[in-house]
Design goal:
This protein has a 5-stranded mixed sheet with strand order 2-3-1-4-5. Helices cover 60% and strands 5% of the residues. It starts with 16 loop residues before the first helix and ends in a 12-residue tail after the last helix. It is built from 17 helices and 5 strands. It is mainly alpha-helical. The chain has 3 domains: 152 residues, Globin-like (Orthogonal Bundle); 109 residues, Alpha-Beta Plaits; 91 residues, Arc Repressor Mutant, subunit A.
Length: 406
């Protein structure tokens, strides 16, 4: 919108009210000629003029011509006449799915024709050349005002449409996460209303955002974004294994802890959401050793999620397998625990375990001897080894439990 300072005098204020009276006889024929000219000059309007479209075009032209003369008669003191009409035209272009290019081109074509015809009428009425020069300046300044009002209406409508679509997409995501799942037809209708193509598969991301309102602008166009609930925002990501999708997500979510659920059909979106939420709850441990806001992939940590789902069972497992270490001095317990974790991770091989710990292989063998004294035959029993590995995961001592998406 064009803002004029209080000291700036619009060019039409320099025209005397009798000028408006001298020009008015040209208006009826000029309105019809402008409409015909615009239809030829602007391809977007080269369509049959019917219904509300025809009424709006004629109303806009007649209001523009009459409003211009009103401004001359008021010596520039009147507010832009019919401003609401031009804001409405801008909103109408949004509803029609068009940019402002065509409408502003129509304004320019109308302004040029108006100048020619009003100058001719002014000459017939005996207006002096200086007045006609001022008239030309006033016409094009007036068109700038109309264009600004139209652009304002266009921006308003775009914002409203974007907000409405965002809300429809939020409702659609809520529908997809419903348990029991909705009928396919219900999803298709909601997706069509939200302008969203239903994908063959999707994955849900759980995010603990610092600025949840910024997420819709940062993620890809096809990603559905929920509102914030209990400090968590959910995203539904179509085709999560597609080219570049993971990298784009990582960039978009760089400011917040996030967890990616498994790829599922839309009918199973709630299961992906459940797993993503569970992984987000463990984010600090699963992303250990990575950047604080690393995107954690839930399916890379299924044992951890399984144990977290049964906390009492996990605690019993720790007590069953690691209790013999509890009475040791803390430093000794930590050394033996990390040695046991490395040895299990390297399938019972002392040398690679020593390399991962950056100690001599004999040190590892010595510590294994201590562990055998404490744990008995558990180191040689496959089932007991599995339980030891799981117990160490519960305590966060397993290196593989610390991996996250780079």
């Amino acid at each position: 919108m064009i803002e004029r300072s209080h000291n700036e005098v619009p060019p039409w204020a320099a025209l005397e009210p009798p000028v408006a009276a001298a020009l008015r006889p040209a208006l009826p024929a000029l309105a019809d000629e402008i409409i015909a000219t615009v239809r030829v000059a602007v391809p977007a309007y080269a369509i049959p003029l019917r219904g509300s479209f025809a009424r709006n075009i004629r109303l806009g032209v007649e209001q523009a011509l009459g409003g211009f003369l009103e401004l001359i008669e008021s010596r520039g003191e009147a507010r832009l006449p019919g401003r609401e009409v031009y804001e409405g035209l801008g909103r109408g272009e949004v509803r029609a799915g068009r940019s402002l290019d065509a409408l502003l081109s129509a304004y320019r074509a109308g302004a040029q024709l108006s100048w020619r015809r009003l100058a001719e009428q002014g000459q017939r009425a005996g207006l002096p050349p200086a007045t006609l020069y001022t008239l030309a300046e006033a016409i094009f300044a007036y068109i700038d005002e109309l264009s600004a009002a139209t652009a304002y209406g266009h921006v308003q409508a775009q914002s409203a449409a974007a907000g409405e679509r965002l809300e429809r997409r939020r409702r659609l995501l809520g529908l997809l996460l419903r348990d029991p799942p909705p009928a396919v037809e219900e999803v298709e209708v909601a997706a069509r209303d939200a302008g969203w193509a239903v994908p063959a598969c999707l994955a849900v991301v759980a995010v603990a955002p610092g600025r949840p309102e910024a997420l819709p602008a940062r993620v890809a166009e096809g990603v559905l974004v929920s509102g914030e609930e209990e400090g968590t925002v959910l995203l539904a990501v179509p085709d999560p294994d597609g080219p570049g999708v993971r990298a784009q997500l990582t960039r978009a979510l760089r400011d917040a802890p996030a967890a990616l659920g498994p790829a599922v059909t839309p009918a199973d979106a709630r299961h992906s959401a459940q797993r993503a939420r569970a992984a987000l709850a463990l984010h600090a441990r699963l992303a250990a050793g990575e950047v604080a806001h690393a995107l954690v992939v839930a399916d890379d940590h299924l044992p951890d999620l399984l144990l977290a789902a049964q906390p009492r069972l996990a605690a019993d497992l720790v007590g069953r397998r690691l209790a013999p270490l509890d009475d040791l001095p803390e430093t000794v317990r930590e050394r033996l625990t990390e040695t046991l974790a490395a040895w299990l991770e390297h399938l019972g091989e002392a040398r690679p375990a020593a390399e991962s710990l950056n100690v001599h292989v004999q040190t590892v063998r010595y510590r294994l001897g201590q562990l055998r004294e404490l744990l008995g035959d558990a180191l040689d029993d496959p089932d007991a080894r599995l339980e030891l590995a799981l117990a160490l995961r519960v305590r966060g001592a397993v290196p593989s439990a610390r991996r996250a998406v780079p």
